[in-house]
Each structure stands twice: as structure tokens, then as C-alpha cells.
Here is the input.
Amino acid sequence: MTETSEPLVSAPVSPGRAKFLRFLIRDAGVLLALVLITLFFSATAPYFATPDNALKIFVQIAINTVLAAGMTFVILTGGIDLSVGSVLALCTVVGATIMINEDLSPAAAITLSLLACMATGAVCGFLNGWISTRWKIPSFIVTLGMLNMAAGAARVVSDNSTITGLPQSFVDFGNLIIGGFLPSIFLVAVLVIAAGWFVLRFTVFGRMIFAVGTNDEAVRLSGHNPDFYKVAAFTISGLTAGIAAMVYLLRLNIGSPIAGVGYELNAIAAVIIGGTSLSGGKGSIIGTLVGACILQVLSTGLQLLGVGDNFKPIVIGLVIVLAVILDAYRERLLRRIR
Amino acid sequence: MNDVILSLEGVGKVFPGVVALSDVSLSIARGETHIVLGENGAGKSTLIKLLAGIYEPDTGTIAFNGAAYQPKSPHDAQQSGIRIVHQELNLLPYLSIAENLMLENLPRRAFGIVDRKALNSRAVTLLKEVGLDVDPRTRVEALGVAQMQLVEIAKALSYDSKLLVLDEPTATLTPPEIERLFSIIKRLKARGVTIIYISHRLHEVFDIGERVTVLRNGRLVATRDLHGLTVPDLVRMMIGRDIADEYSFDDTIVPGKVALSVANLKRNAATPAISFDVRHGEILGVAGLVGSGRTEAMRVLFGADPKLDGVIEIDGKPVAIAAPKDAVRHGLSLLTEDRKGQGLLLDLAVDKNITITDLSKVSRNGLLNRRAEAAAANDLVGQLRVKASSIEQAVRNLSGGNQQKVVLAKWLFRGTSTLILDEPTRGVDIGARREIYQLLWMLAAQQKGIIMVSSDLPELMGMCHRIIVFSKNRIVGEVPRAEFDQERILSLAYQEYVRP
Here is the structure.
């Protein structure tokens, strides 16, 4: 507020306090939920609060975190990407095929494989975005098509078989636990999240992603091409699917055409639990990381508590629905503060 | 006044950051038409929402029809006999008029099957009461705004409402439509319906109202008999000071060379080609009825909709405009008619809305400089006197006038050579309106070209050097300032519609 304008009627919530409340409601809520769930399992489930188990959780969330990071971009623009699971499968077989090529040195094979994974994923993502914007088709449908196409392509490339025999140095890196507490693949996931956070928060591109998700027509009439940012978001989602495929190879050491089934839903769940709105324009990638943690902590904790595999999905499903309900409620609260 | 239908006693409502209403006491007599005035943000909307059952008051009490009135939902409000016709109409576009009218109480036959015959015949009766001669089986989407409004009023009647609240019903209506609406209001009044009427158009309230209540900054300024009051009196009550001349046409500004010229612009094969130009330092008015092709022409010019043919020249040089980004690059700006849907990023903060037109000014190598952004936004917010708690406030929570100022700010931030304004003061209160007018004069003095589309003829006549008139997609005339005449412009606007 400037001196020249008349003051609003008396304001019981100061800007500073409103900002803090906003932070509490929007960001700290999920984090608090994670802490409470973790404390709950630490107290009730045997072996939960052990370093070994913590390491296991870090390892297990890596793939989903990377996928969900890209998914965050797409959902922020108001889209959805159902294809990331099978794009990941396609990338694992492409990457593994290159990596087991004996004409290449291990270093060259690994580098080439990484590039091929990222390129394959990015191309799939680009196609998703381009087709849905060019012909104005809901991304739900386009990426559903891509889900099938990429799954088929993965079978074609791999001749419908699992690819094994990755270079030993690659396998070793996948098993590496840096300093005894930081699994290499978790580090990859954290780096992807950090990169996404930086882009969304500090760059013009990130601002445009939020703006497009808020009102793409207003963005267009402000002299921009919103489709460019939508296509870019899908390309990023494809790219992270490629990176997630490398993480998959690091962790499981096989390229498989049937990898990644249902991964897209886990990624979407992480994004939504993390507080990103399905209608676009609102959310944060740090929330996505927390969302991925919540999902895995629940899954591991329930298992350790002896909840059967049949009941586990029921609980996790409930949590997802709860998260969306809370999200709607949170919006109402935030609207009052802003 | 012994028969009070609605009374408010010390009613207050507080939102975090804003006191929306404070200690409002008011009583409304049965059968009167009561005008409520106030600038945007004065508390009118909050008052309506309290009556509609959308909000509950924090303090004070409301009594309706002799009993305490505490609706928990809009449904409760309707049950009690209070019906609101909101500014944004709430009809279902793909259902028929009849279905919309009786949606909450469809006549039924056995097995819950809708009785179409009863439905349509009842609808005919209701439509007759509001003077709307349309087949009740017509889908609502096929109606014009004025007709939709009448459907809303008919709907209110179908519930035997005792109190009807009309929120800016004339904002999008043309003069003859307004006249018809007023005659319907008078008829309702004769039937004993109490009406609360909210409007920004001060001249019209004298035609229908008996008493007026003015709100300012959430407080009640006064409730008076309209008889004996004048428009300047009302203005003074609303803004707390005098406004000498609303428009203050500045004749020291002399238009220069042609800034933008449009030749033979065609939207599609069915619409006629149009040509016009605007000079540097000129305010060109665009008059015409709603739906006469004014908005469409501006959108095509700006590249927002595809064009079939036509040459656009800026400063004498032809330019290719295929999308809004081309128009913006060539220095054009468009303030759209629908500011919420097309102008603003409602959930984002004021600063982000302002800088969206040119983020390169507040970034380096693709990295945002938040401090520079805040400085630029604060600068414009101060210059345009945008009332916001801070530049971090979401635009959604600003009043209409302040939202409009944010749209202007975003184009000023970009830097514009020609500004196209489509209904810049619709839903904007008189104080903010004045400030927008002054800003336009300032821009004209800086030799910007300004195209102003408006349904408010006095506004155009007060502001413009020249007015072009649209009628049925055609430009049917151009009137220079010296020959401004309300009747002449209006008859031009109707020209293409009255012909056989």
C-alpha cells in the first residue's frame, strides 16, 4: 500500500501475519501431516524408526518423486499426464538396450543411455503437449493414448523381454549410499526437485507456468503464447519420466517393458497430496516431495504394522481423497486471508 | 412507516483484512422500492450476500416479515421469500426457459416424470408477467442478456417472493431494455413486492426509487427520501466530496497524426468490412448496442479472434497481426470487456498481474528480479491509486474498480502506443471511474491513441473527440465532438435493426 491511496477499512490481519497464515495453511499443513504420520508409525510400528528403514524409504520414493516433479509442472498448467508410467517403461528398455551394447565403453554407454532416456521421454512429452494444444484435445485423452502407445513401443523395442546385464559400474552407483545416509538415487530425486523448485520460483518461465494455469486466455491476451508453456510442461514431464527411467535402472538393474504400471497414479497422488490444485495455477514442488514422502511412509508404516497388502491400498486411497477434501477447504481459508 | 418488512439492526461483517460492513441499521417498508448506492467496496455485495444466506453477520440482527431472519443457505433465503437477482446471472444455459424457471419445483406426473405441458403453460404465465414474449421451450443460451435478466425476475416471481433484490440489473442493458425493465419493476411494485435496487447509474434511480440508502467504506452514510435529492447530492454522499464535472473534457489536447488505421477489416464472409482510424492523442468513442459487433471488431483487430481480411496500419506502416502477441509487440493494448475472465489472473497477486505483460523488464537471463518487480508494481499501484492491502494481495479480492486499475496498470507497465478499452467503466464505482477518466486524459496528453468502447453514451459524449457508431456489425456513422447529440447517436445505433 502506498501513501497516496486511501487506507482500506481497518485491517485486523496485518500483511505480515496474513503471509504467515498463508504459509501455515498452504505449505506447512502437508509437512505437519508428514511429521505426525511419521511420529505415529515411529511409536506404533516395530522397526519403523530405524536408520535402515529410513534408508529404505529414501530409496523407495526416488522414482515416484522424479515422476511427480515433472507431473507438478503439467498439473500447474491445468493439464494431466497419464502416460509417464509407460513412457518410463519405454525409456528403461531404450536405456538398457544402449547400455548393454558391448561396442561401447561403459562410460560412453552410460552417458549415451542417459541422453537417450531423456530424449525419448522428452519427445513423448512434447507429442502429448503438441497434440493436445494443436487440436485442443483434453490432455487426459491424449496422454491416455500415449500411455498405450509408449507401452506398445516398449514391447516392440525390447521384443517383449526383460533386458539385463547392465555395466557393473552403473549397478554399483545405484547401490551407493553416500556418507552412509544418502542413497545415490535419492540424491538424484532431490536434485530434480531442487531444479524444479528453482525454475518455478525464480524464473520467468516458472512464473508463466503459474500464470497459464491460472487463466490461459488472460495470458494470451497479454501478448503471450500459452500453448508454448503447456507444451513445455508436458515436455518436462516426459523428460523427468526419462530421468525416472534411469533411476529405475539404477535401482532394479533391468529394463522392462512392463515397468511403471500404475506409476502415473502414484505421481499424481503425490502432487495432489502435496497441495497442488488439479485445476492449475496453485501449488508447489516442495509440496510434491512431501506428498511423495507421505505416500511411502504410509505404505511402509502400514506394512510394518502388519496391515495386509489387501487393506493397504484402501488406507492410501482414503488418504488421497482426504487430501483433496483438505485442499478444497484450504482454498476457502486462503481466499479469506488474501 | 409502520409496516416494516425488513430491518437490520447494527449489522456487521468482518473478513480477515477488511471490515466489509460495520454497524449498519436499516429498515425497509413493505412495498417500497429502495435504492442502495455505494462505490465498489462500500459493502453492497456483502449486504446482498447476508440477505441471500451466503454469509452470516458477525454482529447485529436481521428481521424479516416480523421474525428473526437467520438463513443458513440461499435455499433458506428463498424459502423465506427473499430472492436475489445477481449481477452475474445464474441460469443454466443448456436448459429451456421453462426448466430454468421451475427448476427447484418441476411439475411432475406419476413416476417423477416431468409434466411438460404444465411446465410450459406455467412458464408462459410467468413470462407474460415480465413482458417477455419468447417460447418457454427456448434454450436460455439463445437469449440476450436483457432477456436472461427478465427470466431471472420471472423466476423470482415464480416463488412468490416478498422481497426482490436486484443487483445492478441495468449494467448491460440498452436504454429501451432499461425502460422495459423499469415498467416491470413498477408493475411488481403495484403488486406489493418490495424491491431493493442496486445500481451504479445514478440518473436512473430517480425513475423508480422512493428512498435511498448510501453505503461508504462498509458504513451506512444515510437513508433519505429520493424526492428532493439530485445526482450531485448522491455523489457527494457516496464519495464524501463533490465532483464538479464527471468527465472534464480536456480541449487542450489536440490529436496529431494517425496512430492506428484499420481498412476493410472483415471477420468472416458474412460480416461487412469496416474501416476506421484513431489519432495520437485522440480518444475515439465506439458506440452501439450490445451485440452490434463492437467487441468483436476490437478482438479481431487485436488478433484475439481470426480475421478474414483487412489491412492494419500503425503509424502509416502496415503490420501483420495474427495473434495478440503481434498486437502487443506493435504497441497495442486491449482492456477486455470481461475483466475477470480475460483480463486478470484472479488468484495471483497484484504485482504478478501487472508484470505479466513484459516480464523481461523485471528479469535478467530469464531470472526474475523480485525486488525490481515489487518496485515497478508499487510504483504503478501508487500512480493509479489502486486500493489493495499490499501488492501481494490476490486480485480476486479487490473491488471492480481496483481490478480495472490493475488491468490498466499492466498495460502501462508494458508501455503502449494505442489502447483499446472495451467497457472500461462497467461495474466500476464513480470514484474509480473518475480516476480512470483522468488517467485516460493523461495518456491522451502523452499522445497515445485511445479507442473507447462503451454502452454508456453520456460517458462517451463526455470523453471522446469523435464517436463512431456500430449497428449490426457495420460502422454506420461518425460523429465529431461538435455535433454530439444523444438522439442522433442512438438513432444511428438502431439504424440497421429497424429496417425491414
In short: Chain B touches chain A through 53 residues (CB under 8 Å). Chain B has two domains: 4-239, 258-498. The CA atoms of residues 104 and 496 of chain B lie 40 Å apart. The first helix of chain B runs from residue 44 to 52.
